[in-house]
Design goal:
The complex is a heterodimer of chains A (550) and B (803). Chain A starts with a strand and ends in a 16-residue tail after the last helix. Chain A contains 18 helices and 14 strands. Chain A has 550 residues and is an alpha+beta fold. In chain A, helix 4 runs parallel beside helix 10 and helix 6 packs across helix 8. Chain A has a domain of 78 residues. Chain A is globular and about 70 Å long. Chain B is α/β, with parallel strands linked by helices. Chain B folds into seven domains: 164 residues, FAD/NAD(P)-binding domain (3-Layer(bba) Sandwich); 116 residues, 3-Layer(bba) Sandwich (FAD/NAD(P)-binding domain), CATH 3.50.50.60; 84 residues, Enolase-like, domain 1; 60 residues, BFD-like [2Fe-2S]-binding domain (Arc Repressor Mutant, subunit A, Orthogonal Bundle), CATH 1.10.10; 39 residues, no CATH class; 208 residues, Rossmann fold; 75 residues, Cytochrome-c3 hydrogenase, C-terminal domain (Cytochrome-c3 Hydrogenase, Chain A, domain 2). Chain B is elongated, with a radius of gyration of 35 Å. Classes of the chains: A alpha+beta (550), B alpha/beta (803). At the A-B interface, helix 1, helix 4, helix 7, helix 8 and strand 5 of A face helix 13, helix 16, helix 17, strand 30 and helix 18 of B.
Chain lengths: 550, 803
């Protein structure tokens, strides 16, 4: 006899996500349905507009992944017109994008995800001296590790608790058996939670230096970027550099050690593969400076077979909507059951606004874990030492990363080496400027460009693979289509019943207390869901995506 | 900061002491041209009759104040900020002139041995030594003359005194004949004193520097000793050349002269707009308070005239006067007299309002009269009669500090003090003008028997602490009343206090920032502070509808206050899906709880558009599949205030851009309400959210809104008008294509499609991400994201063609 548990709203994510899981008498998940609950239709709105306006509008797909969509939309239009942007523009766009990686990963780990591991009320019992000692297990110079600092955090925390002024901490699943950390470990995390609030404010300034503001920067235009005056101002470059330097310090001395701490404390569930999906991974790679080694490699892994990585072939991407609320390109909403639950009883019932992308018919996981696995096994020397060190220190194997906690480890490793790469990228920019290359825009005459053309852009963005496709007719957007990372990961099933990464990762998870499904949240959060990004109407020309060749 | 005060009177001492009290680190110097430490001129008479010496009437001064005597200032160098006396030079950062006034004599008496004015300790010596064996002639019938008359009358060394009065009244020309007769009778009961009304000096015979004969209209007096008590004028002769002066040194309402580093206070100053020169101690101290507030930049107050209280206690009668600035000659008068008590109450009434009161041997409650005058209510004559007897606080003892008889008795019985010196820690009664010092001492002495010998004595700290606890208990009570889930108790008072009380230094920067951002006068800082402190008591629900979370993301990038302080210290963000730890049922419980239990108390912030097509089913939230619009209506129904943040909540934003596939509208339209405050922007600047919340809490009403319900303080200025590149626009210097030389130099972006001329918002001054940048600075230009339908109108890089 199975029982259905509904979790809605799933908080600490972007957007409106709902999960319905069927558990057996022991509380073990047998089947899962994950559903996007909001449809806005940004692609429909893009239709008929001037292709040069796509960026500003498509940027609004998401305020969290903010500059990812802005850039991808503009790049897809540049691809359609075969416009090659100047080196400097490329670097500035990369500097904004990579600063976003750092911001997103840290916010995700501490502010969106850490409550699944850290019991705030347990931290109150911590001893400040022992906490300081504990932190030394994960780094030789831990971030803000004085006794007095921990005492101050404790004091602040007990102030909230005694005053009953818990704010965002209220009504958590405090005391749940699935919380495994000692009071001291909890205190380390909560201390970093508070520090990270400051951190994310600061790192966002790095994006704003070249973007004008964030979220929703405004400096990318078809042909290049507009922030040339900022680029030529040494003080702005210096500001950017020092923000990243400061960020790197936090990442090396707090974020990465905390990922190690979780790996050690949750070793048991890692080894049992909790939160593991079907082992299919996809990455499109990217971020390179003129033919040098790319920051990320592209490739496809099936069933955790790391030894045989296939080359990525975009013609193998298909989108389907058998169980999404569309029929071909029409909206086909089928409403909920009387009790408000999703209609999932029959194999062809529709239950989500998210469409179903498939790579060669298979569901794929995309994101930091996919990037780390693929880049490492394709012998990307930029990342190798970071991964080796981490696995050695935590005594884990590569396969262990394919788990709830492992996804976080991959994310932290990636953040650290992105910082290193930014320093290189910035020195390239300075070199360019030094040799009198100050171009930031490639001139084109819009009237002379092709009236009918198609373009696409693939990017690695914080949560995984992002693709934008544009069809242009009569110098207007005829069709626009987006496949975002969460579209891959949170995909609903198709008629063949294949589960996507979210659903697959939930199967077999044991829920101790159905009224407090912490275990489900933990699995879902490890993917860093972003629902605004995920929901996109299917492109009528979806089946023709294969026309684009790399 | 070095503050130098020129002058040696009450105003100087009051200023110096209170500056030190407010900020002990200040370097305060008093420069006096007298040879005595600042003393209390009101007690000069006791120097004449030798009952006190000048040390006894000197004013108490904070020991860290530097005092330089015998320094008559001859010159001020405004440029280098230096003062020069005959033998010294003093530097200042701020200079306060409190030189008071000089007495007037009717003819030059510089070298005459038996004529003087009555103003200083030296004058007292002169009088004391000169009056023997002479007929004393006092010219003038004002309070000073009357007091001296009384003193000399009691002195055995004085045989005969003549009071020479030009008019036909004593004390004031507005007194009734009855009152004048009563006063007169006190002086003339024996033959020592004669009063010559309607009389004045017409000639003098001077021999060897001595007046041998004084001729008046009516009298001839041989071998006189002449004392002038005819009036005073501001003592500013040395400042006339360097500062703007009229009667006194002209000042603004903060008592600042035309040089911003020089203030003038007291009888030497003239408030320009009021043509006002102080004449009472109370007025001088009010002026001094303005200077102190302005100089220290705390709760700056302008000088305002208030009712003043004067008391005159002379032998057999006492006189009290309450005078309003509104008093004028065209008054009507109510007289209440009692022959039996020898009592006369005179009420002066202008336009049905009480403007002045003079009482002789009066029993009235002076505080009550003062409030009658200050409130300016129309007068009910009956009240005046009812007020003829004293109230429950007893007689007013100290008119400067407004301390009544019973107040003093309470202090004595509660704290067990036994002397005037011990009183200092609890009250300044008797210490400001010093006139009532004797009376205060009497009360302390007479109420000693009321002290309960078993009463534990409380220290000042304990009394302060009790007050604080009483205050905090009230706050906790209020907090719990509107916030039942958070049970603050007084059991662990310290931690509760810490939770409630935000560290002062931390909020001050925020308060100033918000005050400045909202373009409020610095005077509003106090109100802002109150708003900031109550902000954390108000539950906030943040609802995300058809959105991209961009405004939430922007909100957590809030600086000043930093986000960690904002969400943990200042506001009670009880429901925000992006940040809250609770999920699913646990989060829904929070929402239900606020809606059910805190009706009319919570603030609802909505982000995102409201899809209405397909019965709103494009968005569903919660286990029961409630649609976005249903949830919005449920949350908005009992909210105290609904804020629509971001462009989508404003008018549907990008979601409602053509062809608006989900039938999306803004919050106001979805609810069909006109009272929704819109804070548009894509995303909106977090400062504008926080500022609007504050403004609502501070003023308990909606901030001023434009016709689109956007708060004017943030949305009144046109981007183009405040733009940093505006100068280039005026010069015709434009960016012509991306990345050109103009772009490198920061030229105007109008030709590149900047919509600054069509957008009204504070981006140019506020900027984003802690002031890092904004779209114009990034070389792109504005896209008018705060305006209606901007995605269909402005969101591109082409010049807007106005219809």
């Amino acid at each position: 006899m199975t029982k259905k548990i509904v979790i809605d709203p799933i908080t600490r994510i972007e957007g409106h996500l709902r999960a319905e899981v069927e558990v057996d008498e022991n509380g073990v998940v047998q089947e899962a349905y994950v559903s996007g609950q909001l449809f806005r239709g940004i692609e429909t709105i893009l239709k008929g507009r001037d292709p040069r306006d796509a960026g500003l509008l498509a940027g609004r797909i998401c305020g969290v992944c903010t500059n990812s969509h802005f850039r991808a939309a503009v790049s897809s239009v540049e691809d359609a017109y075969s416009i090659k942007i100047p080196k400097n523009a490329q670097i500035i766009r990369d500097l904004m994008a990579l600063a976003l990686f750092i911001q997103d990963h840290v916010v995700h780990f501490y502010h969106l995800h850490s409550f699944d591991f850290m019991d705030v009320t347990s931290a109150l019992k911590a001893d400040a001296k022992l906490t300081s000692k504990e932190a030394h297990k994960y780094h030789e110079k831990p971030f803000r590790n004085s006794h007095s600092h921990y005492e101050a955090v404790l004091e602040k925390l007990s102030g909230f608790v005694k005053a009953g002024k818990l704010g965002p901490f209220s009504n958590g699943y405090w005391g749940h058996v699935d919380y495994k950390l000692t009071p001291e470990q909890n205190l380390i995390l909560i201390s970093h939670y508070l520090e990270a609030l400051k951190f994310q404010t600061n790192i966002s300034k790095a994006v704003a230096i070249f973007g004008g503001k964030t979220p929703h920067p405004q400096s990318i235009v078809v042909g290049g970027v507009t922030s040339v005056a900022d680029m030529l101002n040494p003080q702005r470059l210096n500001d950017y550099l020092f923000i990243i330097k400061e960020a790197k310090d936090f990442i090396d001395r707090a974020y990465l050690p905390d990922a190690k701490l979780l790996c050690m404390a949750y070793r048991e569930e890692i080894k049992e593969g909790r939160g593991r999906a079907n082992g299919n991974f996809l990455a499109v790679g990217g971020y390179a400076f003129e033919g040098e080694q790319k920051l990320f490699c592209s490739g496809v892994i099936y069933g955790h077979d790391f030894e045989n990585i296939e080359a990525f072939d975009e013609s193998k991407i298909r989108e389907e909507v058998d169980r999404s609320w569309y029929k071909e390109d029409e909206i086909c909403y089928t409403d909920l059951n009387e009790d408000g639950s999703l209609k999932t009883a029959k194999n062809d019932d529709k239950y989500s606004w998210i469409k179903a992308p498939r790579y060669d018919g298979a569901t794929m996981e995309t994101g930091p874990l996919a990037r780390v696995l693929i880049s490492y096994h394709k012998k990307n020397m930029l990342i190798k030492s970071f991964v080796d060190d981490f696995l050695k220190e935590t005594d884990l194997e590569m396969l262990d990363l394919s788990s709830t906690v492992g996804r976080n480890a991959a994310r932290a490793i990636e953040t650290s080496y992105i910082c290193e790469y930014i320093f290189k990228l910035l020195s390239r920019l300075i070199q360019n400027i030094k040799y009198y290359d100050t171009d930031t825009w490639s001139k084109f005459d819009f009237g002379a460009l092709a009236k009918e053309t198609k373009g696409r852009a693939f990017f690695e963005v914080p949560r995984g693979v992002l693709a934008h496709f544009v069809n242009i007719k009569d110098a207007k957007i005829e069709n626009f289509s987006v496949i975002a990372p969460t579209t891959w990961n949170a995909t609903p099933k198709n008629l063949n019943g294949l589960r996507g990464a979210y659903e697959e990762a939930l199967i077999g998870v044991k829920i101790e207390d159905p009224s407090k499904p912490l275990e489900v949240l933990k699995v879902l959060h490890s993917f860093d869901p972003c629902l605004a990004c995920a929901v996109h109407i299917i492109d009528t020309k979806g089946k023709e995506l294969s026309r684009y060749k790399l | 900061m070095r503050v130098v005060i020129v002058g040696g009177g009450i105003a100087a001492a009051y200023l110096a002491n209170n500056l030190k009290k407010k900020n002990a680190a200040l370097d305060v110097t008093i420069l006096s041209d007298e040879k005595h430490l600042p003393y209390d001129r009101i007690h000069l008479c006791s120097l004449v009759d030798n009952t006190q010496d000048v040390d006894e009437i000197s004013l108490s001064l904070d020991p860290t104040i530097r005092v330089e005597l015998n320094q008559k200032i001859n010159k001020i160098d405004k440029e280098s900020k230096r003062l020069f006396s005959d033998n010294a030079m003093f530097s200042y950062d701020k200079l306060i002139i409190a030189t008071g006034s000089v007495p007037i004599s009717l003819f030059d008496i510089t070298h005459i041995k038996n004529a003087t004015v009555f103003r200083s300790a030296d004058d007292c010596d002169f009088i004391k030594n000169g009056v023997e064996k002479r007929e004393v002639v006092i010219v003038g019938s004002g309070p000073i003359g009357l007091e001296l008359l009384e003193t000399l009358n009691e002195m055995s060394s004085v045989d005969k005194i003549t009071l020479l009065i030009r008019g036909n009244h004593l004390y004031s020309k507005d007194l009734s004949t009855d009152s004048i007769k009563t006063i007169e009778a006190c002086y003339t009961k024996d033959a020592k004193v004669r009063i010559s009304y309607e009389d004045e000096i017409v000639d003098t015979v001077v021999k060897d520097g001595e007046i041998t004969l004084l001729k008046t209209k009516k009298l001839q007096i041989e071998n006189p000793f002449l004392v002038f008590g005819v009036g005073i004028k501001p003592n500013i002769e040395n400042f006339r050349e360097i500062l703007q002066c009229n009667k006194g040194i002209l000042t603004n309402p903060f008592m600042q002269s035309d040089n911003e580093d020089i203030y003038a206070v007291g009888e030497c100053a003239e408030v320009r707009d009021m043509h006002f020169v102080a004449g009472h101690v109370k007025e001088c101290t009010l002026e001094a308070d303005c200077v102190i507030s302005h100089l220290l930049g705390e709760e700056v107050q302008e000088f305002k005239l208030e009712a003043t209280i004067d008391m005159l206690k002379v032998g057999e009668f006492d006189l009290v006067e309450v005078n309003s600035p509104k008093f004028s000659a065209g008054y009507e008068k109510v007289l209440i007299t009692s022959k039996a008590d020898n009592r006369i109450d005179e009420y002066f009434i202008n336009d049905d309002k009480l403007t002045r009161f003079i009482g002789i041997n009066s029993n009235v409650d002076v505080g009550y009269i003062e409030s009658l005058i200050n409130n300016g209510d129309a007068l009910d004559i009956n009240y005046l009669y009812q007020n003829r007897l004293i109230g429950e606080r007893g007689r007013l003892i100290c008119s400067c500090e407004h301390v009544y008889h019973q107040d003093l008795v309470d202090i004595v019985t509660q704290t067990g003090i036994g002397s005037f010196a011990e009183l200092a820690t609890f009250s300044d009664a008797g210490r400001v003008c010093g006139r009532c010092k004797m009376m205060v001492q009497d009360v302390i002495r007479d109420s000693q028997h009321l002290i309960d010998p078993n009463m534990p004595k409380k220290t000042v700290q304990e009394i302060e602490r009790e007050k604080e606890i009483a205050q905090v208990s009230k706050r906790i009570e209020k907090f719990n009343a509107i916030h039942p889930r958070n049970n603050l108790t007084t059991e662990n008072l310290n931690s509760a206090m810490e939770s409630l009380d935000i560290a002062k230094h931390e909020i001050n920067s925020w308060i100033s920032m918000v005050t400045a951002n909202m373009q409020l006068h610095p005077n509003f800082e106090e109100v802002v502070e109150k708003g900031v402190k109550s902000l954390n008591k108000i539950p906030i629900i943040w609802l995300e509808l058809a959105d991209c979370s961009g405004n939430s993301e922007a909100f957590i990038k809030s600086t000043n206050p930093a986000i960690e302080d904002l969400i943990f210290e200042y506001i009670s963000l009880d429901y925000h899906e992006l940040l809250m730890s609770a999920s699913g049922d646990q989060s829904e419980t929070i929402l239900e709880d606020i809606i059910a239990n805190q009706k009319g108390e919570y603030i609802l912030i909505v982000e995102g558009a409201v899809p209405l097509a397909m019965d709103g089913k494009f968005l569903r939230i919660g286990a029961n599949g409630e649609t976005g619009v249903e949830l919005l209506k449920k949350c908005a129904k009992d909210a105290a205030l609904v804020l629509a943040v971001g462009s989508c909540a404003f008018d549907g934003g990008v979601v409602a851009a053509a062809p608006n596939p989900t039938g999306a509208v803004g919050v106001a339209e979805a609810l069909g309400r006109k009272d929704i405050i819109n804070i548009p922007g894509c995303p909106t600047n977090p400062t504008n959210i926080v500022g609007t919340l504050l403004s609502y809490i501070m003023f308990e009403e909606l901030p001023a809104l434009d016709k689109l319900n956007r708060p004017l303080w943030a949305y009144a200025g046109r981007v183009h008008d405040n733009c940093e590149r505006r100068g280039h626009y005026e010069l015709g210097e434009f960016v012509k294509e991306w990345g050109d030389n103009g772009a490198k130099k920061g030229y105007c972006l109008f030709e590149m499609g900047c919509k600054g001329p069509y957008a009204n918002v504070n981006c140019p001054t506020m900027k984003f991400n802690g002031g890092t940048s904004w779209p114009v600075q990034a070389g792109h230009g504005c896209m008018g994201c705060v305006e209606v339908g901007f995605f269909d109108k402005f969101a591109n890089e082409r010049k807007y063609i106005e219809e």
